[in-house]
Design brief:
alpha+beta; nucleotide-binding; 2 domains; ATP binding; EC 2.7.1.148; binds cytidine-5'-monophosphate; 286 residues; four-stranded antiparallel sheet; 10 helices; Ribosomal Protein S5, domain 2
């Protein structure tokens, strides 16, 4: 038996951190949406009790350090699964980019293995298991557009965001998510209007989304890496309707209503940045 699963990237339309909690995580309010830039996983059932992971990309671990491996190991241990799996992971999403690539891979693995090993877990049960491995994994299991609160693991699905073009540009620098959260001063930053963003999504208002877009983590990453700020400015100069850093960065995305302008932003950015993508919002058919 063989299963193919798509693992789409996400962008943050808004990301707010309200305060630092006693468990050292931040209490968050995020509106996220999945986009048509995806990794692909193939899962093959093995009768032997092993987990085999083959990653088709350089510099990505194919052992216990990989969230996909951890997802398989967690299900095996929790449900005493005696069968095994051979997983091939084809990467297209840039790594450590603020696009939840690793979390989406783990979510796809949980979904696929639920089927492959016939575990009959509900989406909510998978999301609870996913939250043990990473804060963004529950959202990745739901996909589409959603409000994520708590540590990021409490998901309220929203209508799909209005169709538009999304230009992504990832500068070739790495940022550490724990480092960005550590340097964030929640009391000193301007907070995005999450309720306004949720309303804009419910209204299907592209203009409302542009008016309420915001990410508190920009205060840390843009100050430390001026090239990220420059990319954002270039996107706006080339005609983007709005531009924002996703997650803890360093990827910046532009939302553009008109295709001709999106192409201009895309072509313009290619002069500054090696990794540039032109995509659309994406939601799995339910
Ligand atoms: O949950 P995950 O392992 O993906 O989180 C990575 C890091 O991001 C955490 O160790 C923490 O430093 C930071 N984080 C946070 N508050 C959250 C989610 C993540 O401070 N709600």
């Amino acid at each position: 038996m063989k299963i193919n699963v798509k693992a789409p990237a996400k962008i943050n339309l808004s990301l707010d951190a309200l305060y630092k909690r006693k468990d050292n995580y931040h209490e968050l309010e995020m509106v996220m949406t999945t986009i048509d830039l995806a990794d692909r996983l193939q899962l093959v059932l093995l009768e032997k009790d092993i987990i085999k992971l083959d990653v088709k990309a350089h510099f990505i671990p194919d052992d216990k350090r990989n969230l996909v491996y951890q997802a398989a190991a967690l299900l095996k241990e929790r449900f005493s699964v005696k069968q095994g799996v051979a997983i091939t992971l084809d990467k297209s999403i840039p790594v450590a980019a603020g696009l939840a690539g690793g979390s989406s891979d783990a979510a796809a693995a949980l979904k696929g293995l639920n089927q492959l090993w016939d575990l009959k877990l509900t989406l909510e049960e998978l999301a609870d298991l996913g939250a043990e491995l990473g804060s963004d994994i529950p959202f990745c299991l739901y996909g589409g557009t959603a409000l994520a609160t708590g540590r990021g693991e409490i998901i309220e699905p929203l209508p799909m965001m209005p169709n538009c073009w999304i230009v992504l540009a990832k500068p070739s620098i790495s940022v550490s998510t724990p480092g960005v959260y550590r340097d964030l001063r929640v009391g000193e930053v301007e907070h995005p209007n999450t309720a306004g963003m949720v309303q804009a999504i419910r209204d299907g208002s592209f203009e409302g989304i542009c008016d309420n877009i915001g990410n508190v983590l920009e205060t840390v990453t843009l100050a430390k890496h001026p090239e990220v700020k420059r990319i954002k400015e270039k996107m706006l100069e080339f005609g983007a309707d709005t531009a924002l850093m996703s997650g803890s960065g360093p990827t910046v995305f532009a939302l553009v209503k008109q295709y001709s302008r999106a192409k201009r932003v895309y072509n313009g950015l290619r002069g500054f940045c090696e990794e540039v993508y032109l995509v659309r919002p994406w939601q799995e058919e339910k």
